[in-house]
């Protein structure tokens, strides 16, 4: 988190608009086809750090909002909303997993890694939403990426 803030030149109390402005500026600077650098290393770091900061903003926003009862929550209706919700759940779960592991090596043996069991439970709703996307919207442009995501999730679910 600190590295991402430093890379973007932002303080802890940054807003979504500040993040967007800095991202646009840095994307122009670091893009290998248009920016000052021909290597994509800095651009890939920019994207990685932006994802970290986006997740941080989402966590902050969700902590500040009261929980809605399950009956009142809206169900995703479009192919994109299903995909987006599944992707959000997947990203949040994996982010929390690595945050809890705090630099420890990844161990895919359930018996030796209680955080892995927790991650597997948290990934289940994402898997279900991806499957629902395939069933309800088989020709959606989001299906291929959802299949790719399921292949990656399968590694965690072994």
Q: Determine the number of helices (DSSP H or I, runs of at least 4 residues).
A: 6
The helix content is: 55-70%
The amount of beta strand, in percent, is under 5%
Q: Nearest-angstrom radius of gyration?
A: 18 Å
The biggest sheet amounts to: none
Morphology: globular
The pLDDT mean sits at 82
Tally of extended strands? Answer: 0
* Total individual domains: 2
What is the element string, with H for helices and E for strands?
A: HHHHHH
Quaternary structure state of the chains depicted: single chain
Structural class determined from secondary elements = mainly alpha
Please report the distance between the alpha carbons of the first and last residues: 29 Å
Low-confidence regions: none
Overview of the structural elements:
The protein is mostly helical and 158 residues long. It folds into two domains: 63 residues, Helix Hairpins (Orthogonal Bundle); 82 residues, no CATH class. Helices cover 68% and strands 0% of the residues. It contains six helices and no strands. Helix 1 packs across helix 3. The longest helix is centred in the N-terminal third of the chain and has 24 residues. The protein starts with a helix and ends with a helix. The mean pLDDT is 82.
Topology of this protein?
Elements: H1 2-8, H2 16-30, H3 41-64, H4 79-101, H5 114-136, H6 143-157
Quick rundown:
With 158 residues, the chain is mostly helical. Helix content is 68%, strand content 0%.
Question: What would the keywords be for this entry?
Answer:
158 residues; mainly alpha; Helix Hairpins; 2 domains; 6 helices
């Amino acid at each position: 988190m600190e590295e991402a803030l430093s890379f973007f030149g932002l303080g802890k109390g940054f807003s979504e608009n500040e993040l967007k402005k800095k991202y646009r500026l840095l994307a122009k600077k670091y893009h290998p086809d248009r920016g000052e650098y021909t290597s994509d290393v800095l651009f890939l770091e920019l994207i990685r750090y932006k994802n970290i900061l986006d997740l941080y903003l989402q966590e902050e926003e969700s902590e500040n909002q009261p929980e809605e009862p399950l009956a009142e929550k809206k169900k995703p209706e479009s192919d994109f909303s299903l995909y987006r919700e599944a992707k959000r759940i997947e990203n949040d779960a994996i982010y929390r997993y690595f945050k809890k592991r705090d630099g420890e090596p990844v161990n895919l043996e359930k018996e030796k890694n209680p955080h892995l069991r927790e991650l597997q439970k948290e990934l289940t709703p994402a898997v279900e939403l991806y499957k629902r996307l395939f069933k309800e919207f088989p020709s959606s442009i989001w299906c291929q990426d959802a299949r790719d995501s399921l292949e990656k999730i399968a590694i965690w679910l072994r």
